Amino acid sequence: MAKTEPAIEISAELLARLHRIHRQVTDLQGQVDRGPRRIAAGETLVQKARQAVTDAADAIKRSKLLADQKQLQLREREQRVHSLQGKLNEASGNREYELLKEQIAADVQASSVLSDEILELLERLDQLEIDRQTRLRELDERQIEQQRLAELVHGEVMAARDELVRAEAQREEAELLIPAAGKSEYLRLVAARGEDAFASVEGDSCSGCSQMLTTQLVSRMILSQMIRCPNCNAFLYRRNPN
Predict the structure, then answer these.
(1) Sign of the torsion angle spanned by Cα atoms 212, 216, 222, 226
(2) Model-wide pTM > 0.70
(3) Which of 65, 155, 181, 191 maximizes the CB count within 10 A of its CB?
């Protein structure tokens, strides 16, 4: 006849306490871990705002360069018109005279087009400068928000770390009450699953996986024996044993 393993007694109150502490530890550790990610996300927004300022400044530089080039072309055409007008009086014949007049007319028309393009560029520069100022204000706002966020997160993380130290101390204190016979099993499962190593029993079902429990398992649990869910392997306890 096979030898039956001796029952390990453990109170539902202790398991519920351990479960609560492990949940608290998980939550606090999550707050600590999320802190740097929240700050990094804010820094990404600041960097995007900073890049927007750079892009706006670059757009102004390109437009100014183009305007300068067109103004240079306009001056060159005006000088050529002036030169051609001087030659007009020195034309040797009607044919040369007409050719000079056609060239002057073409250059005057080209100069008019350039003048319009330069005017449009200058108007665009005004709008680009307005946009750059807007981007600068947005960057300032982002930087102020980021500074506030960093200070807030730093305070929250420091508080969470302090709470985490207290929770870990409570966990260690509670673990001293675990029966020696079940300690290694407890440590192994908790190391692998954390807070999911525990599950309360709601009615006759495991709250961790909704597995229906046999009458025998429920009876053993009522007798304060250390049992685990046959489906999800969590330590079981009744939330309100009375």
Answers:
(1) negative
(2) yes
(3) 181
